[in-house]
User: Fold Aconitate hydratase, mitochondrial from Sistotremastrum niveocremeum HHB9708.
Amino acid sequence: ASFTPLTEKDCTSITPPYAVLQQRLKRISEILNHRPLTLAEKILYSHIHNPETCANEGIVRGHTYLQLSPERVAMQDASAQMALLQFMSADLPTCAVPTSIHCDHLIQAIDGAESDLERSIVSNKEVFDFLESAARKYGIEFWRPGSGIIHQIVLENYAAPGMLMLGTDSHTPNAGGLGMLAIGVGGADAVDAMTGTPWELKAPLITGVHLTGKLNGWTTTKDLILHLAGKLTVKGGTGRILEYFGPGVESESCTGLATIANMGAEVGATTSTFPYTDGMRAYLHATGRGPVARAADEAQASGFLRADAGAEYDEVIDVNLSELEPSINGPFTPDLATPLSHFAKVVQENGWKDEISAGLIGSCTNSSYEDMTRAVDIARQAKAAGLSTKIPFLCTPGSEQIRATMERDHLTDALEEVGAVVLANACGPCIGQWKRGTESTDENAILTSFNRNFRSRNDGNRNTMNFLASPTVVTAMAFSGKLSFDPQRDSLKTPDGQMFKFTPPKGEELPASGFTYGRLEYYPSPSPQPQPDTQITISPTSQRLQLLEPFKSPFDDNSRSELPRMTVLMRVRGKCTTDHISAAGPWLKYKGHLQNISENLLITAVNDEGGEVNVAQDYDQETGKSTTDTIPRIAQRFKARGEPWALVVDENYGEGSAREHAALQPRFYGCLMIVARSFARIHETNLKKQGILPLWFADKADYARVGAGDTIETVGLEALLKGESSARIGLKVTPREGEAFEILTNHTMSKDQIKWLQAGSALNKIKNDSKA
Ligand code: F3S
Assistant:
């Protein structure tokens, strides 16, 4: 099926409600005494659930917690599993906001698109069947395996200037290429939006990136973000939004801006955004979204889709695009940036073998029509000189639309003629789903146009050095096979003995004859109606999926006004991130099976009593004798005995990510309370959502006074439950040996969060409310 250009879609469900957003922003502007706002502030603040909640204290960037109402949710197949299982336990008939699921992460790359896809569909059948049936039941748009990578599909179909979207993947910010705020979150946050619960975010600081000049020659937007990654490092964007502005923004294509936004994740930024440009307007029209473009034009005319004159940034970085040169970043970290012209020297200085073992282009980061036409320009130049690629050269199209348009315009032929293998429209090698068939310990270097290059990410081999570069640089270097080759300067010998030098590649921003959809069966119908009678497919014997049982409220017995007496399972020493609490790696396959994944609970945490990792004691309360075992097995014993338990933990407990499994797993085993020297904010909220009470030692020295086998009773929780959110909670600790004593704690429970605790979890509360 070919549509030239794409027929205009029904855009009702994908056009932001600009009038409502601007109305809300007007109120916020009054509250903030009409101070000039950055674009990121305008988008965020126009999505504040109730502007009046800011009336007293205003909004201070880096300080105020905002309650936001995102307009859309997108989930990839790995993270969607637990998000949906949680959503199901709220017992709602449909999602509160339009939601989509994308089957992309579970597709392996072995020998080419068709066979890889077929094999992966068979091996992941139960997961895909589950996702599809849940999508049908709740009216979620389901993008089946082979349809493409979440971020490319979102950009082509859903993204719109001024929108606020959550996605359960760290490169969700890619959609910022269309002038919106798209934020990567954990499943529990996505469930907030899907259930219509306001989603909380600390108002980020805003870094302004002022772009002047124009990219030229070999340099692309990929090189801009690779350069910035070198400048900012992997932490430089933490707690910040990167907002680009200045004349240089206007000269870049929408998809080029998306590459920049995508890799803002590599500097730790909350997200990245750009003012509405002509390039965005053109892209919206080319992808069949004329109505969105026209609505955005109107919003822009009233000043919504750009920063106010005089808006202040927390920091400004100036970049003259005319002076940039291509960059190669890596290995093993995306912020190790080297200008291409210096790279040969770096290769020599490090003593790296001057060989590239594979070149990979495409992925969610760089598979736009512009990227592909530029790569094809290189391929055609090389072919005319009689050259073909010297190394395996793989191309991952980001979506069916890109794949089909590439095929129609003979771009695929041009790449295959020089030796490329085109993979399925899926993540494949970008997420470690690449079965290379090489030794898993061989030291080797690959060059990719992807976004991440942590050890083992692509082929599972710790010794594969992944260098990041633009698709054009990767393609040109594939014809040399050498790390030291600089296509800007060096020549290659052709089969007839001539010396050949590439000329800087040219690309086309958008296809002259429009995009083509490709296989229509990949496209879900827009805004599908929920089908409540759909049976959700989960086999009771499945090892990968398990229905979530609602957590029982400790207050179901109405006579109780304090938590039941709890035994301390362990005192955790030092750094304990969400990775320590719920390890990734081989456990990822159990993301949809709470019981199975819980077997990794705290397996890398250090026990402060003994200093060992994954060792804890189970004390018999009668005899005082202890049994030594792993932490998950002791937690299982507590669960089997129906014995509620608590954890004592150190500073910044739960730092790292929004991974909800780190809160679900202890709750699954019966944990009701965690007492910390301090908590990482996101994890603390996640604990509250799952019905665990997080308390802070008022005196941090008390941490050392409470140990495994001691019992704890709360004192004064009753007042909190009655709605006195300022009530202090004491803990009566009865040690295994010695006299009982009381200590004081602090808490951050809001009135709503107290209700989550009472109900047993936030989802129980939503479920109870929907039945009331
Ligand atoms: Fe993520 Fe790469 Fe897929 S960045 S979305 S794994 S293509």
